Amino acid sequence: MIDQRVYEMFRDIGRDMYLHNLCSSHGGNISVRFGDRIIIKRRGAMLGNLKPHDLIETGLDKNDSGVALASTELIVHRAIYKATPALAVVHGHPRRAIAMSLSRDEIIPIDNEGSYLLKKIPVVEVEFASGSPTMANTIADALKSYKIVMMRGHGSFATGQTLDEAFQWTDALEEACEIIFYARQLNEEMIEYRKHSASYTTW
Fold first, then answer.
1. How far apart are CA 159 and CA 89, in angstroms?
2. What is the pairing mode between strands 148-151 and 155-160?
């Protein structure tokens, strides 16, 4: 039986993910770790409209009866928890960030908040990017050094000590990408305000 407070946390973050256009109706997944247990969204559940039965509890290392219903990317969440001190993982499909991942190996925010919060976001890729062991290991390894990473053409994975924190990085990434898109559409010379912007690529 999932604690009501845990359910409400999942429900609220899932709703905000959907309302902020960080996932499609049935896309994305979120999880939290409690010791050697993981609670994760049910496979096929609507992230923006989670019900108590949409939360699946299973082991960090071992499968049990709940694993058949868990998100197909449970393997990625497990790898992240084993490789990092994270207690929460948020996987979204932020549209602009995905578009930008198709043409670059890292996303460097040009706005002040994005620069302060995220610095830069690496873009990684694997041949099979839907819950494969290679994908799990690649994402987990990248998250040892970053708060959030992009899987090329797929979506973002963010870690935190809480779901709120991992959601913040995800939302900040999409906002930073939206600002880059707007700046490009204006097609005007940018005015330097941060000083030494060229060095930001070395973060």
1. 5
2. antiparallel
DSSP 117-157: HHS-EEEE--SS-SS-HHHHHHHHHHTTT-SEEEETTTEEE
Measured CA to CA, the distance from residue 121 to residue 105 in angstroms comes to 9
**pLDDT above 70: residue 129:** no
Pick the CATH number of 4-187 from 3.40.225.10, 3.30.930.10, 3.30.420.10, 3.40.50.150: 3.40.225.10
The owner of tokens 């058949």 is 68
DSSP-derived 3-state class of residue 34: strand
The structure's pTM equals: 0.93
Handedness of CA 158, 67, 40, 86 (dihedral sign): negative
